[in-house]
Amino acid sequence: MDKILIIRFSSIGDVVLTTPVIRVLYNLNPRPEIHFITKSKFRATLEHNPYLDKIYTFEKEITEIADELKSENYSLLIDLHSNLRSNRLKLMLGVKSVRFNKLNYRKWMRVQLKYDCLPDIHIVDRYMKTIEPMGAVNDGKGLDYFINENDREAIQKIPDKIRSAYHVLVIGGAHFTKQIPKEILIAIAKKSNLPLVLLGGADDIAKANLLEKELGDKLWSACGKLSLNESAAVIEKCDKVVTSDTGMMHIASAFNKEILSLWGNTIPEFGMYPYFPKGSESKNYIFQVKDLSCRPCSKIGFDKCPKKHFKCMLDINIEEVVRRLNATCQVFTP
């Protein structure tokens, strides 16, 4: 049996987007033994994935697990991270490898020169092209995210009057310019026909407290209260998900949820918009301010708007977001 190591170090969303590759490789005949390497803080994203034989993680440097990796005698490395660190790993192991093209130069052209030379193809489909020489074919089943029954117990933490039917509102994000501003969060929450569960990390607790003060019993904050997989369980049981360009957006895609995604400084054209199973693409609703001259200002994000106006988020048509959110939803009575 061939032994394969898939390389993707970060982030939550990036790792979730590799799951179709893992599944398709698992279903090859003969089936290879599949290992995955990522940072320790992203292990939960894959820890229940039945298509993986082993997960390797490290805190800061891959040298922490160098001896273990060398002892595996891999037949192939699939580099879906494609940076200096993954190149060092490949040199260290000295094994045949295939490398994913991140299109960084084209993204730089789009950000810095506003010249659009990006291919119209999702990153998952580009991942698949990386493994096509192995005979792998995209099965069209979308993303995977696996949780266990212990994770699902987190649903019981949601207040009874909200638990039966709710939307998820993702209020966090790795960078300020990818986060939904509190003014917009409040506007959406006030007009939602269903109550909302707020998802975010410990850094988002202060923002969540402001929303709870403003909206009262119409929402419940899970910010800083749940693990990643418990948050995924909350998404699994929700009606719809309102989010910015976050890892939670991709987890929602894995659960085939209707997603209303609000895009700030990043753009869907980078190829990391919600990815659905074949036939379910109609559940994807993207809201953005098109033709804004300063957008995209980064392929990742900033701690503040470089132009100081944050129009990419603040000028999104919130009425359209609310209209879509309330479509086919019952009315919540406190």
Report on the structure:
The protein has 334 residues and is α/β, with parallel strands linked by helices. It has two domains: 132 residues, Glycogen Phosphorylase B (Rossmann fold), CATH 3.40.50; 178 residues, Rossmann fold (3-Layer(aba) Sandwich). Helix content is 32%, strand content 14%. The protein contains 14 helices and eleven strands. The protein has a six-stranded parallel β-sheet, sandwiched between helices. A five-stranded parallel β-sheet has the order 3-2-1-4-5, sandwiched between helices. Helix 9 packs parallel to helix 10 and helix 9 packs parallel to helix 14. The longest helix has 11 residues. The chain is globular and about 55 Å long. The mean pLDDT is 94.
Main attributes of the structure:
alpha/beta; 32% helix; 334 residues; Rossmann fold; globular; six-stranded parallel sheet; five-stranded parallel sheet; 14 helices
Sheet having the most strands: 6 strands, parallel
Taken from the alpha-carbon principal axes, the silhouette is globular
Mean pLDDT value = 94
Number of strands: 11
* Helical coverage, percent range: 25-40%
**Low-confidence residue ranges:** none
Strand coverage percent: 5-15%
CATH class of the largest domain: Alpha Beta
Architecture per CATH nomenclature, i.e. the level-2 architecture of the largest domain: 3-Layer(aba) Sandwich
User: Within the largest sheet, what's the order of strands?
Assistant: 8-7-6-9-10-11
Q: Any idea what the CATH superfamily of the largest domain is called? A: Glycogen Phosphorylase B
Our Rg estimate from Cα atoms comes to 20 Å
- What distance separates the N and C termini? 58 Å
**H/E element sequence:** EHHEEHEHEHHHHEHEHEHEHEEHH
Counting structural domains, the number is: 2
User: What structural class is derived from the secondary structure elements?
Assistant: alpha/beta
CATH topology of the largest domain: Rossmann fold
Number of helices: 14
